[in-house]
């Protein structure tokens, strides 16, 4: 049965006029009321009727790009590249370009679903979800259902740097091979002679964190080397800086530290220098992603290079239908080990 505006109003305990004001954004509404209405929209999976809604007709050229943190270069590079690709001759209904809107979720699963609902309601031409996903069964199921409904309604769905959503066969997914990258990085350190390696991981509930850490552990196990201490934190400099004290307290004999990404690695390097330790003389440090500042760090950072710009371009073209989707819907994206001055053989 089709869900109506009145159904949403009844669920949110407001008038149909209030629902209309929230959805059209043309009249001030209390924040608590707005949240109630949007929650009802989500629960009922309400979608505006295109012929009856000037809003839906006006925004049919919309493309949503969902990122965790646009201030993080990892997401900024991909989002910028995708936006450029979306504008490559992609004509809208009136002959102009598609409108790419970046939605910053802050890593919140609730915000991710809210943005998807808003894009669904406005009949977005395409959505691109960037970066790893939250490993929560309820959220994954809700996301899969939402994306399936959007795809069935004609919205192209593209995942960039993100594993396919279980149960959803409608998406095109560009999947970073984080496990292989983690293995390569740790094998490099083992090859230099390191056997006491600490690890600063990202949030424990993220796919990217798990896959990179699994690759690290696989390399250690294959070499018969015991796993060193691991500390989880955010993907930021502060987490890397704070983790050093705990890692060295748990194993003062560490000779190398692998960081969840390059930004975390910068925090690790700063904390080591503050302790009077040299890099790589006293400890080697490695990152992941090969963000633009990595080559200019002192010392330059050993890392795994992911083709962030090229992946963003590919995602934008897939969203526009100007490139063919990968066979089977999923395309693995390998990383490349980049060895620089922050890693060397351990002393003694």
Automatic annotation (TrEMBL):
Keyword Transcription regulation in record: yes
Key words, A-Z: DNA-binding, Transcription, Transcription regulation
Start and end residues of each stretch annotated as Disordered: 323-348
Record GO terms (molecular function): DNA binding
Limits of the HTH lacI-type domain: 3-57
A Pfam family: Peripla_BP_3
Residue ranges the record marks as coiled coil: none
Protein name: LacI family DNA-binding transcriptional regulator
Organism: Streptomyces omiyaensis
Classification of source organism: Bacteria, Bacillati, Actinomycetota, Actinomycetes, Kitasatosporales
